[in-house]
């Protein structure tokens, strides 16, 4: 036997048991009717807490079924807060005072310091104060121009604009079966032998974009990854009416207003080098947007509020004729950060998953490999792997092609497909 108190030294210095293990064992004793206060004290000792804490653990497990500690919400700063912080030259105390003046729930100053330090260490860049002030002044100027344009020709002629004939982007065929389109489409990668398929989602996107073009409006195309949002917009804009142009604007990573201005300038393929002042660049962009044009912004969910305000200023400018199409996963949530632009969106078009009823028709029209597969097998593939996601079907098609080309005796069966499922879907 050891010296008196040796067990206490061991439990206090070396042995530590996690909360789930202790609670699970105590619940077992409780279910058997053998739980005592001594057990709770022992559990508290090996967990490094007091007995009252262990009793609270047990109560949470009984009433909520929770043996872990309740997760705390991660404190995040909005883009507006980062802009205020940049204007204050990185002074967190100034940001704290601004948040208190704005009202609502305000974290402590120490918490703000921790969040700013955490995000800066993770790679967040705090813009220079002079740059932020200059961009803010430019945005105020653009907003003033937009406000002056509210009573201009665009609004006065709204009745005439609404009476125009919709651009025919929707196909004449309205049957339920998809229509394949051979040939490559810029910006859309397809497996060898595949062809584009005009699904019901493509027709809905084409209709929404066509209506927006008729009134020089704005449309937001959103949906989960891999559903074919970009492909649907590209198919809809593949043949625009005479007199219209289509410009795709790539969104830079961590975009700023200066970066978006440069991206729009480059996308319009304007002659000459990028101007050395923002005023000259804006004048050149506004001049190019004076002709009927669809401005498509893909990956719009990356855009912070200042960049969205910049796009709104281009659209509201009295000299531009823009139909604005914002595309991306979560683009509808990004727009919610700028209500004045969200209120101008004429159509919110979601691209849903392929339904079980249309999977067979779509995939057999997409690639000849699937035309020999029975419809029940296609339904099984969709339920087991693809889950109505068109990008997954395309990846699975490419893997199946490679498997059939590299193995002479390969045949399409469920064993082969199960192996390919593991390549297409990441392990959970």
From TrEMBL:
GO terms for molecular function: ATP hydrolysis activity. Transmembrane segments: none annotated. Residues 216-329 form the ORC1/DEAH AAA+ ATPase domain. It holds the Pfam family AAA_22. Signal peptide: none annotated. PANTHER family: GENERAL SECRETION PATHWAY PROTEIN A-RELATED (PTHR35894), PHOSPHORIBULOKINASE _ URIDINE KINASE FAMILY (PTHR35894:SF1). This is ORC1/DEAH AAA+ ATPase domain-containing protein. It comes from Streptomyces silvensis.
